[in-house]
Structure formats: structure tokens, C-alpha cells
Amino acid sequence: MAGILDNPTAAVAGIPDGATVMIGGFGTAGQPVELIEALIACGATNLTVVNNNAGNGDVGLAALIRAGRVRKIVCSFPRQRDSWHFDEKYRAGEIELELVPQGNLAERIRAASAGIGAFYTPTGYGTSLAEGKEVREIDGRHYVLEYPLRADYALVKAHRADELGNLVYRKTARNFGPIMAAAATTTVVQVEEVVPVGALDPEVIVTPGIYVDRIVRVPAPVPVPEPVGAGQ
């Protein structure tokens, strides 16, 4: 049964130096910013981070990279207009990059959650990403052998949870959350609301509570109303 904690700091307590941490999110969509901020505050360093991107702007994963806490990042899309902290660290030789095509990244995480030992994929064959990897021809097509990605911890953002840890997500914020939750030894989830058991329609539950270890409620920010006459 998932533990319901009072604050993000308590939720990430115990993450050690050198841990492998999966962080949900596709860019800023579904990124568990408050959990990442708590991870920065707890002081863990020398981390290996698995994420689709390498941080946006100055908050969340970008702030973790800026603080020098990430030794290695495994991702599919490390460079974009606002990934300046990763870019600076990478050019200085202060962070290692393992570049993985997005479909391969998702499937490697899913393979870990499903107990699959390895799988063959055509993606990456004949490129530098396949160097040193086992290849095989199947029915006239060439494939590359890829291995699962597992993590010590997963930090995930969901929309709602019940008291057993069953999760539902909000639209595209779902992205990598479900597979990461199932591929980590310890899964920590921030949600906007925790509801009683039975309040969630079983047909819309995406992540079963068996995969969730810790839950913390982080309410959505209250929108600030515009002053009367604004925009006129």
C-alpha cells in the first residue's frame, strides 16, 4: 500500500548519491517539478537521470542539471531552444549523455516493467547509435539488440490518486509516467488530489497502486485573475 506523505521533501527522502532516477515528463508536460526541487534540496548527487528531454529553462530537471547533481542523462531529445544548462554542462565535459531514440527509450523502460530481458528493434541500425551492439537479420531486415532500462527511483506526476495509490493522469501529462512507475524499485508520485478508495472509476485508472510506493499531494496553482480592463 502506498504511503501518503505530507510534503515533497519527505517523499524523496532517502534517495542516495549515485542513484538512477527516472523523471516523468515530455518537456514540461507532466514534469514533477516539486519533487525535483525537493530532490535538489535533499542534496543527492552523482545521479543518472532518465527523461525524454534534458531540461527546459531554469526549473525542474534543468535546475537539477544546473546544480551539478546529474552525472549522466539518458534521453532522446537533449537539445532544444531552452536547454542551456545541459548544453553548458555537456560542452564543459561535466555531464555524460546516452542518446536513445524516443521509441527505443519508451520500449526499454516498458521492457523493464514487463520483465523482458531484451528486444530487437530496427531503429538505429546502421548508425553510430548501434556501434558495439549486437545486430541480427530477421526476415531480411536488420535489427539492433536493446536492453531494458531500470531505475532505483521514479519521480512521476499524476492528476489524482486514491488512498491505495491507483493513478489517473491528465491528458498529455501522462506520457512516460505509467511505464516509469512500473520500471523503478521505488516510485514516488505527486498528485493534485488524493481521493478515497472507490472514488476513481476503475475503467480510467492507468497505473495500479501496486507500482506506487509514495504519494504526495501538490495542489495545482490557483490562477491569478487578470485586473479589470486588462487587455483592452
Structural features, described:
The protein is an alpha/beta fold and 232 residues long. It has a single domain, classed as Glutaconate Coenzyme A-transferase. The chain contains six helices and 14 strands. It has helices at residues 8-12, 33-42, 61-66, 84-91, 102-114, 177-182, and strands spanning 3-5, 20-23, 47-50, 70-75, 96-99, 119-121, 135-138, 141-146, 151-157, 160-162, 167-168, 184-191, 193-195, 214-217. The strands form three sheets. It has an eight-stranded parallel β-sheet with strand order 1-14-12-9-2-3-4-5, with helices on both faces. The chain has a three-stranded antiparallel β-sheet with strand order 6-8-7. The longest helix is centred in the middle third of the chain and has 13 residues, at 102-114. It is globular and about 60 Å long. The termini are far apart.
